[in-house]
Amino acid sequence: MRLRKTKLIATLTVAFGVLLATEALAAPRCRNTANFDKWLDAFKKDALAQGISARVLADAAPDMKFDPVFIRRDSGQAVFQQTFIQFSDRMTGGGRIPNGQAVIKNNAALFAKVEQQYGVPAPVLAAFWGLESDFGKSFGKYKILSANTTLAYDCRRPDFFRMQLLDTLRIIERSDQRVEDLNGDWAGEFGGMQFTASDYLKNAVDFDGDGRRDLIKSIPDTVASAANFLVSLGWQRGQPWLQEVIVPRDMPWDQADLTIQLPVSQWVKWGVKPAHGQLAAADLPASLILPMGRLGPAFLVYPNFKAFLGWNSAYVYSTTVAYYATRIAGAPPLSRNGAATIVPLTSQQMMDMQSAMMKQGYDGITEADGKFGAGTRAAVKKAQMKYGLPADSYPTIELLAKLGVPVRTSEPSVARKPAAPVARPAQKR
Fold first, then answer.
1. What is the pLDDT of residues 214-227, one digit of tens each?
2. Is residue 27 part of a domain?
3. Count of domains for the chain
4. DSSP for residue 275
5. Residue 205: inside a domain, yes or no?
6. Is residue 8 a contact partner of residue 336, using CB atoms and an 8 Å limit?
7. I need a surface site. Which of 50, 131, 187, 297 has the fewest CB within 10 A?
8. Cis (ω within 30 of 0) for the bond into 220?
């Protein structure tokens, strides 16, 4: 989903085990050589040509400045590793579940009206609202115009942020927001649901009827806009999204993959059972996901889960918010049977594994960055199948040994505790 959320305090850049990014990483990057003032003058001329008024440019001018803090934040990812259970416990703990239920109760009429119109249930909307901004308590401290201006000038992702800067100006132009109210995340996301400017323009709705689409101060606009966004990402009315399940020891583990969808009836034939309640309809397609491998929690995810991935493509964030929604809806805590035996790889071990896989010709890995993304996950599965290991796509010390990777043990595998609320990962879509 959007480049999208590089989030608030922690930037998730993982897909399974999970890598929590917090601050600056000294990584090789491009160098800015263009004169900023000349670049800004040219940008303003282009903005005028695209319909931005001179009045709006004048109002925005004080905040349209270069600030190196955004370059440092965008360049940096000191990577720390957490398991899915560690991360989800932190993100859904501290009162977040009862708080989410209280928010729904206190705004019952609003959530009912939104669900009637868009088909998105209250627990799902409350889950995103809770993780994105702690229900509107924490929007971020950075000036959005400064962030988008700096990153549009920067050489790393200029096209994306140039569009965000133009769309921020368009939001001001149409009187949805004022310059002084545009504060949020360092990557340019703002409001209760931490939308990028482009997502704001495309999906924000005026649900309270005051003539403005205000996702900063209006709770009705905030909640309804999130629902509208999820519908645009494929949300289907009346359908489930995620359910914890119990899996047998003799599962065909190579079938546990987000890219593989099978009817619920097939999972039942293989012995998959609901951890609580009942499974969805037998003919509904579902994928089995194992965030911590075959020994950790297991979930069946249904077609609506793609809307969570559309909101934020970081696997562990999407799985956490989907799980959080089920908890708000009344599901019990997930099973921890076997999870205590799992030893996650450290960031250095992950990089060593990636380097070895690239040398051995595994497809999908382009760099040894320590991030457990889709390419690395697919390569792990291929390696497990090659060496006769359970192909659950989760890397282990045993796999490192098979790959001939020396095991380093000096780096701690437990991440620092992030401040709430969580930040979305650096790529939303």
1. 999 999 999 999 99
2. no
3. 1
4. S
5. no
6. no
7. 50
8. no
Any bridge partners for residue 273, and if so which?
246
Q: What is the amino acid identity at position 159?
A: D
Q: Is 201 a domain residue?
A: no
Pseudo-torsion of CA 31, 33, 38, 42, nearest 10°? -60
Please state, in angstroms and rounded to a whole number, the distance separating the CA atoms of residues 375 and 363: 8
Determine contact, residues 55/389, Cβ cutoff 8 Å.
no
d(CA 316, CA 377): 13
As given in the structure block, the two tokens for residue 213 are: 């689409």
3-state secondary structure at position 145: helix
Q: Which long-range contacts (C-beta less than 8 Å, at least 24 apart) are formed by 95-100?
A: 96/130, 96/131, 96/324, 96/420, 97/324, 97/327, 97/328, 99/130, 99/135, 100/126, 100/127, 100/129, 100/130, 100/135, 100/324, 100/328
**Residues of the chain predicted below pLDDT 50:** 1-27, 78-79, 411-423, 425-429
pLDDT, one tens digit per residue, over 361-376 is 999 898 898 888 889 9
| Contact between residue 297 and residue 84 where contact means Cβ atoms under 8 Å apart | yes
- pLDDT (tens digit per residue) in 346-359: 889 999 999 999 99
Distance CA(316)–CA(88), nearest Å, equals: 9
Q: Report the amino acid identity of residue 263.
A: P
Cα distance from N-terminal residue to C-terminal residue, the chain: 2
Residue 393 lies in a domain: yes
Q: Is the pTM of this model over 0.85?
A: yes
Return the residue matching tokens 């600030």: 67
The encoded tokens of residue 116 equal 């009637």
What pLDDT does residue 81 have?
62
Determine the structural domain holding residue 385 and report its residue range.
347-403
